[in-house]
Design a protein that fits this description.
Bound molecules: zinc ion
Structural class: alpha/beta
Strand order of the largest sheet: 4-3-5-6-7-8-9-14-13
Helix content: 25-40%
Radius of gyration: 22 Å
Strand content: 15-25%
Largest sheet: 9 strands, mixed
Shape: globular
Number of helices: 12
C-alpha cells in the first residue's frame, strides 16, 4: 500500500513548489527561533528574504555532527523546553552525545514517516509487527512503535535482546513483520536453529532492517535463512530516527520522503553536488520539523541518488543502500576500506559467514596491518588444515584483487565473533593515530 499517495506520488514539478514554500518557512523559522542558526546564516550572508525557491538551498551553510555536539545539550533546540515532548540521545563514541528534541508535532511527523516506510515494505493496517530494535534513547524502537500505531498495526514491543524469547513469541503469535538490525536478524536465525526451529518456517514475511550499512549479499543471506522479504530502512536520530527513507518491494533503492527530508548528494571534499547516480555524501534538510530543525545536515553516509519514477508508482527519489560511511572508512596503507566492501567479498566465497571483523594495527612503525576475522561454516572448520589454508588464501586474494589491499585472514569457528543486539562492531582500530 502507499500510505500517503499525495506526497509519495506527487509530480516532481508540483513537489518543487511545495519544497520551495517549506524551505522559505523553515529558514525564516530558524532565523526567528534559533540564535545559533541565525548567527550561522548571518555569517554566510543569508537572510530569509533571499530564499526564493528550493534551489537556494545550495547557498545555505552545512550542519555537522560537531555542531550538534557543541550545542550540547539543548542549544540547537528551536523551541523552549516546555514544548519538547521527547528527547533522544545518540550513542557517541567520543565526547558529548548528540541530543535531539521532538515537539508533539515532530513525533507525529516521525510516525507519518514510519507509516510511509511500513507501507513501502508491504505492511498494511491490521498486520502484526515484532519490533526488535532497542527501545529507549536509541530511536529505533520508539520510532517504529509510533509509526506502527499510526498505521494501525498490532505491536509486539520486544525491544532488542532475549533472542530465545523473541523466537518463542514469533512462533506463538505469528507476526508478519520484523523490524531490527540486519545483523541481529541473522543472529536470531542461529538462535532459532539452536532451539530446533527451522527459520524458513517462520511467520515473518517482511523484514525492515536498518541502523547499520548492509550489502545485497547480506540481504540474500537473510532472505534465504528466514524465507522472508528483507527491506532496508534508513534514518538517523539527528534527522528524526528511522523512516527517512525506505525500500519498496522492488528493492531498487530507498524512497526518501523528500517533502519532509530534502536530500542532496555532495562530494564530501568540495561540498558541491555530484551528478545523479554518482556516489557522494548524503545531506538532509528537515523541511517541517520544529524541535530541532537542521539545515543541510552532513550524514557522513555515502550513497547515490536516482530521481526516476519507481515501478511502484512513487515519485520520491531513491537513494542507494549505504555504500559506506565517511567515518567508518578506514585507511590502510593509504587505501580506503569500507567494511561493506569486505562483506561483499566474503559473501561471494563459499563456506564463509557474514560475521566478520576488521582489526587494524600498527605494530611496526608506519606500517598498518589489516587483519580480517572471518567465521566459517562448521563443516569447513572440521576439514583438514590444507583446506583451511586454501580458503584463507582465496579470501586474501579476493580482497587483494577487489580492494587492492593486502590483509591477514584469520578463520574462526562459528560464533567466535561477538554478536551484537544492536549495531554490529565491524572495525577495531588499534592504531594510535
Ligand atoms: Zn518504489
Amino acid at each position: 500500500m502507499i500510505w500517503n499517495e499525495k506526497m509519495e506520488c506527487m509530480e516532481p514539478k508540483e513537489m518543487v513548489g511545495l519544497q520551495s514554500e517549506r524551505l522559505k518557512q523553515i529558514v525564516a523559522y530558524l532565523w526567528n527561533n534559533s540564535p545559533l542558526y541565525r548567527k550561522k546564516l548571518e555569517s554566510s550572508g543569508i537572510n530569509p528574504a533571499g530564499i526564493k525557491d528550493v534551489n537556494d538551498i545550495e547557498r545555505l551553510p552545512f550542519t555537522t555532527k560537531e555542531d550538534l555536539r557543541d550545542a550540547y545539550p539543548f542549544k540547537l533546540f528551536s523551541r523552549p523546553l516546555k514544548d519538547i515532548a521527547e528527547i533522544h540521545v545518540s550513542s557517541g563514541t567520543t565526547g558529548n552525545p548528540t541530543v535531539v528534541g521532538y515537539t508533539k508535532d515532530d513525533l507525529d511527523l516521525w510516525a507519518e514517516a514510519i507509516a510511509r516506510a511500513l507501507g513501502c515494505a508491504g505492511a498494511k493496517p491490521g498486520d502484526m509487527i515484532q519490533i526488535a530494535y532497542g527501545y529507549g534513547l536509541f530511536t529505533g524502537g520508539l520510532g517504529f512503535h509510533y509509526g506502527s500505531l499510526k498505521m494501525g498495526l498490532t505491536i509486539i514491543p520486544c525491544s532488542s535482546g532475549q533472542s530465545k524469547r523473541q523466537i518463542k513469541l514469533m512462533t506463538d503469535f505469528k507476526p508478519k513483520v520484523l523490524a531490527c538490525t540486519p545483523s541481529y536478524a541473522l543472529y536470531m536465525a542461529e538462535e532459532a536453529k539452536e532451539m530446533g526451529i527451522d527459520p524458513k518456517n517462520s511467520s515473518w514475511e517482511i523484514g525492515i532492517f536498518g541502523a547499520e550499512p548492509w550489502t545485497e549479499d547480506m540481504r540474500g543471506e537473510i532472505e534465504k535463512e528466514w524465507n522472508m522479504l528483507a527491506t532496508d530502512v534508513y534514518g538517523l536520530s539527528e534527522i528524526t530516527g528511522p523512516g527517512v527513507a525506505q525500500e519498496c518491494t522492488h528493492k531498487d533503492g530507498l524512497h526518501i520522503f523528500w517533502d519532509i527530508f530534502f536530500p542532496e548528494v555532495i562530494d564530501p571534499k568540495t561540498g558541491k553536488r555530484v551528478k545523479e547516480g554518482e556516489d557522494g555524501e548524503l545531506v538532509v534538510t528537515t523541511m517541517t520539523k520544529q524541535g530541532i530543525p537542521l539545515l543541510r545536515y552532513r550524514t557522513r553516509d555515502i550513497v547515490s541518488i536516482n530521481y526516476e519514477k519507481c515501478k511502484c508508482g512513487r515519485t520520491c527519489p531513491r537513494i542507494s543502500k549505504i555504500k559506506g560511511r565517511t567515518d567508518d572508512m578506514i585507511i590502510v596503507r593509504g587505501i580506503n576500506v569500507f567494511p561493506t566492501q569486505i562483506e561483499h567479498v566474503l559473501l561471494q566465497i563459499e563456506g564463509t559467514k557474514p560475521h566478520y571483523q576488521l582489526i587494524v594495527d600498527r605494530k611496526t612503525r608506519e606500517m598498518d596491518e589489516l587483519e580480517v576475522l572471518v567465521e566459517v561454516e562448521e563443516k569447513i572448520f572440521s576439514d583438514e588444515i590444507s583446506k583451511l589454508k586454501a580458503l584463507e588464501e582465496k579470501i586474501r586474494n579476493e580482497i587483494m584483487s577487489t580492494l587492492g589491499v593486502s590483509a591477514k585472514i584469520r578463520l574462526v569457528e562459528p560464533k567466535t565473533i561477538e554478536r551484537s543486539e544492536g549495531k554490529a562492531k565491524r572495525v577495531i582500530d588499534k592504531r594510535k593515530i
